[in-house]
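thread: overnight batch results

M.L. [08:02]
morning all. the overnight job finished for the chain we discussed friday. pasting input first so we're all looking at the same thing
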Amino acid sequence: MNAYSFQILLTQGIVILLLVVLIIYLLHQKRAIKLARRFESFALLSIKDSEKSIFDHIVSFLWSVIQKISKVLSKSVFLKRYGSRYDKYIKYENKDKISSMDYITIKFFTAVGLILLSFITAMFRLSSLNFMSLLLTFVVGFFLPDLLLYIQFQKKRKRIEDDLLKAIIIMNNSFKSGRNIMQAVEIVKNELEGPISDEFKKIYMDMTYGLSIEVVFERFYNRVKLDDAKYITSSLTMLNKTGGNIVKVFGTIEKSFFNKKRLKQEMESLTSASIFVFRVLCVMPFLFILAIYILNPTYFEPMFTTTLGHILLVLTILFYGLYVLIIKKILEVKM
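M.L. [08:03]
and the structure it wrote out:
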């Protein structure tokens, strides 16, 4: 064994040791937090607890670095305009703590982190990385947070769609008792919980600033992109321009939403088999890839080590995305 091989083995051993220590520490912290939450209701806590764990200090330090970088990036007009699309992911409670530029900084952090991980992986394999591999890693890392945010947003959107009928019922009952729209919105934001409460807090804040009802609910629709929200916006706009009985209008909206929700539940029960087929068809390519990799681990190596392989890899990802969209459109049942 020469000196270079010994240095490589020593570096690999140190990296593995650090990863093991980090994993053990995180598992220990997770167990400690779990036990603290379990005994929290039985313990007498002080009014103010200023103690912080090492993990909290690390998170605070990283968050301060992210915010400093965000201030620098916000000087770019292009990045500022690009970051405005992330405003819908910010919760009402965090509107003074998080800015849309923080998401852009996190995207850059993720990309750089994946590149460092690729360097470590290449060091273990005793191989080098070319420009195309680094570029592909950076692109994947940069857009990976978007995928996670999209999944989170879809879950939030689903909860808002499920709870919107409750909000309409509360607003309709408020109108019947003689309250105005602003008071009805305030009751909804106080009575309900979850994403729907957060959205109605934003609606209430917009109305407090003096925006018209049409603009306020149009902003609500632009944030959630739900047809039901568009229906409410159109109804309130027509009501504000032509006049009418708001109790009857919201009674009609409530009845329409109730019938739509009942029909949707019936359709979901009837199309459950199609949804299962869609999920199986989406997973099948990965199962084939896994089976081939188990039988021949070097089969896909040219796709990651050659320029032609990189091109084929990108085309494969694009065709897979198109494949998922086509199957989803074929099996989708619109009401």
